[in-house]
Amino acid sequence: MFKRINAVFLLTICSSICVANQTPSALKKFIPNDWEILSQANGDLNQDGAQDTALIIQPKHKNQQQRKLLVLFQSTQQPQQQLQLKLARNIPNWTYRANEQCVEDALDESALTIKNQRLDLQFNTSPSCANTYGFIHTYGFKLKNKQFHLVGFDTYSLDKLTGKQDQISLNFLTGKAKLTTIPNIFAEIETPAKVIWKTLKSTSNDTLENISFASDEFNHQFSMQYIGEKP
């Protein structure tokens, strides 16, 4: 797992180029003219066996700060299956950072994933040309009572100078937090990871509909309210 995480961080050092997906005809009615798909994930979100779709879309070439997240459910009604809009919400402007020096865009084509009825949204805030900390924050949501409730939060941090890697994983279904530290991922001799388990101080009332993602600092501070520690 940690080698995979390390590879993700090393890749973020290089500049990323966002290549928009070609838009299938079934999706076109949900995407305004002169907009494009930044990230797309497909999978069953409502346990009906059909392939649902999550999209992050943005205007082409200008005002890309005006990003939106769309969740589309595949109707199982016959005779013709169709996508139906379940959720639409704005993505904060701060995530578009491609014009800032040494700062990567916080969202790219891999920002969305769907697995086991869970929708993950990943923010990558690692600087591209600085020997400082890099961060990846992932929020996981599952559908319950017609809303996407926050069920998990994972944050990975890497000190590029010392090689110290920290992982915090909050599981709101079990009420537990797992804190993992590797002293130096660059060491020739692999050092065993230090793992600490904690009980969350409270449950989460956040949903995909109401969580703010208000700022970069919001991500860095998120776990503190539940475990009292900053990554």
Written overview of the protein:
The chain is mainly beta. The chain has one domain. It is 10% helix and 38% strand. The protein has helices at residues 2-13, 216-221, 224-227, and strands at residues 35-43, 52-59, 68-74, 83-90, 112-115, 118-124, 133-144, 147-159, 165-171, 176-182, 194-199. A seven-stranded antiparallel sheet has the order 5-6-7-8-9-10-11, with helices on one face. Strands 1-2-3-4 form a four-stranded antiparallel sheet, with no helix packed on it. It is globular. The two termini are 18 Å apart.
Mean pLDDT: 85
Low-pLDDT parts are 7-21
Number of strands: 11
SSE pattern, N- to C-terminal? HEEEEEEEEEEEHH
Task: Give the radius of gyration.
Answer: 18 Å
Task: Bin the strand percentage.
Answer: 35-45%
What percentage of residues falls in helices of 4 or more residues? Answer: under 10%
Number of H/I helices? 3
Cα end-to-end separation: 18 Å
**Which secondary-structure class do the elements indicate?**
mainly beta
Shape: globular
What's the domain count?
A: 1
Q: Major sheet: size, sense and barrel closure?
A: 7 strands, antiparallel
* Biggest sheet strand line-up: 5-6-7-8-9-10-11
Keywords: Signal
Signal peptide: 1-20
Short description:
With 231 residues, this protein is mainly β.
Give me the secondary-structure topology.
Layout: H1 2-13, E1 35-43, E2 52-59, E3 68-74, E4 83-90, E5 112-115, E6 118-124, E7 133-144, E8 147-159, E9 165-171, E10 176-182, E11 194-199, H2 216-221, H3 224-227
Keywords: Signal
Signal peptide: 1-20
